[in-house]
Each structure stands twice: as C-alpha cells, then as structure tokens.
Design a protein that fits this description.
about 110 residues, elongated
C-alpha cells in the first residue's frame, strides 16, 4: 500500500500485455500469465492491480471480499509484529509463532499453520 495505485496498475498491465514477449524465458515465468492468476489465494492484491484485472474482466465476483479479508489479516499480523519487536524476545522464532497465532485467533481469523 506504499506504492501509488497508478504505478501498480501500469506494471500489472505491462506484465499482462507484454507476456508473449517473455513467456517461457525463465523458470516459473509462465505463472505470470493472466489465466494462471489465483484471485482468492493467500496474499492480497494491490488496488492498482485489482483495477487492471477488473478492467480486463479477469477479477471474479467475490474476490473483493476475499481480498479485503486478506488485507485485514495483513494488518493484524503487522500489528502483532510491531508489538513483538518492542518486546525483544530472546527466541524470536518461537515468540513470533505464538504471537502470530494469538493475534489471528483474537481477531477471529484462521491460523493456517
């Protein structure tokens, strides 16, 4: 959310429109194809990308609600992260696992792993 929506929109559009130019050029690049996008996955999409996907008719019905839930989830995790940083725990990995789980549970969100 720190990058301007117009910039993300234009980068997303360029990646889509120019896909035939770089298709197959490196391992994993084919995942950039529009038909391979999973709009209800685990990472939220930026508003600029969403605008482009809506414009080309790729953004499915129901994806807005899912995306908003993911944004809220990221906010919960970011707050928990900042809180834990201020606590300076000795065993960061163990402390983060517990803090993350508790923050998600407190927010009524699913703890996936």
């Amino acid at each position: 959310d720190t990058v301007e929506a117009d910039l993300v929109y234009n980068v997303t559009k360029a990646m889509d429109v120019l896909y035939p130019e770089y298709e197959g050029d490196s391992p994993g690049v084919n995942g950039w194809a529009l038909e391979h996008q999973n709009f209800e996955w685990v990472v939220p999409y930026h508003e600029g990308a969403v605008r482009y996907f809506e414009e080309v008719g790729a953004w499915p019905e129901g994806a807005d609600e899912h995306n908003q839930n993911l944004i809220e989830r990221q906010e919960v995790l970011a707050t928990a992260w900042e809180e834990l940083k201020s606590e300076s725990p000795d065993n960061w990995l163990e402390a983060w696992d517990a803090k993350r789980r508790q923050a998600l549970q407190d927010a009524g969100m699913q703890v996936v792993f």
